[in-house]
Amino acid sequence: MRTVSAGGVTLSYERSGEGPPLLLIMGMSGTAQHWGEPFLEPLRRDFEVIVYDHRGVGESSPLDGPVTITEMADDAAGLLAALGIDSAHVMGISMGGMVAQELALAAPDRVRTLTLGCTYCGGPGSALGDPAVMQRLVEATMSGDRMRALRVGWEVNVSPGMVDDEDAYGRFLAIAEHHAVAVPVIMAQMQAVMGHDTSSRLPQLAMPVLVIHGTEDQLLPVANGRLIASLIPGSHLEILDGVGHLFFWELPGRSAELVSAHSLVSA
User: Fold this and answer.
1) 212 to each of 129, 173, 186, 256, how far by Cα in Å?
2) Which H helix or E strand runs over 74?
3) How far apart are CA 137 and CA 232, in angstroms?
4) How many CA atoms lie within 13 A of 161 on its CB side?
5) 8-state DSSP, 103
6) Calpha distance 255→214 (Å, rounded)
7) φ, ψ of residue 84 in degrees (nearest 5)
8) Backbone phi and psi for residue 244, each to the nearest 5 degrees, phi listed first
9) Helix (H) or strand (E) holding 200
10) Superfamily holding 2-266
11) Cα angle vertex 102, ends 101, 103, to 5°?
């Protein structure tokens, strides 16, 4: 991956494929590699795909203290500017979906279309994961047992039907082992998520918006997807039955089709 100075921070990024630019914004504890080739490969046929690591991750600038979703949105805008891209199709998942919301609200001229996957807007009607699930995840993360943390992370991110897919878990594990995200960075990202609330501002969004959410999402229940779609005029909601938080891992081809159809038809 390459690095670029973007608004005061250094961000590691990768550009691949041909077509209009599509910026992908990863979620909490994830890296650019966590998008996975089965999802990225079909997107590259239609777009110049841009993936990057948040500050504190990979070769991006170290994280020094707390960070906010708004600051991460500024990083995303800074990356587009540094790459000479006036506007792009934007997709964000989970925490990255929160970053994408703030980016679209702060700089709507930079966002051609917006796809929000398995994410959260805060405010009345929103819901974080079951406290028991979140406690299990935090305890595993803080345990010092990396293999336990990775296994629990996998189990809460996918549906029960995918938990025992050892090939998929092997790919997930290989990415995590080679591109580890430090625990203090994950905890800072978690704090940023807790402070996120765009609910009263989402009706301002005027670009085409697609909301994708799985019914078996344990981290951010599907009610969040329905709420977000209800708050954004003209948005389209795609509910994936039986699918967990990492919908683009469980259904990579279908997920890529949804993003491409939304972005290209709406452009």
Assistant:
1) 17, 25, 24, 11
2) helix 69-82
3) 31
4) 14
5) H
6) 11
7) 75, 30
8) -90, -160
9) none
10) Alpha/Beta hydrolase fold, catalytic domain (3.40.50.1820)
11) 90
- The amino acid present at 220, given as its one-letter code, is L
The pair of structure tokens assigned to 57 is 């991750």
Which position has the token pair 């970053």?
A: 99
- Tell me the pTM: 0.96
Residue 23: both structure tokens together? 């910026």
The answer to whether residues 256 and 106 touch, using CB atoms and an 8 Å cutoff, is no
Could you identify the residue written with the tokens 């600051």? Answer: 71
One-letter identity of residue 73: A
CA distance 71 to 206: 22
Q: How far is CA 245 from CA 82, 192, 224, in A?
A: 31, 19, 12
Cβ 144 vs Cβ 136: under 8 Å: no
CA gyration radius for the chain?
17
Q: Which residues contact 89 (CB under 8 A, 6 or more apart)?
A: 20, 21, 22, 23, 47, 111, 112, 113, 114, 115, 259, 263, 267
Measured in residues, the chain has a length of 267
pLDDT tens by residue, 158-196: 999 999 999 999 999 999 888 788 889 999 999 999 999
**Residue of 68, 69, 60, 71 lying closest to 5 (CA atoms):** 60
Query: What is the per-residue pLDDT across 199-245, written as a single tens digit (0 to 9) for each?
Result: 999 999 999 999 999 999 999 999 999 999 999 999 999 999 999 99
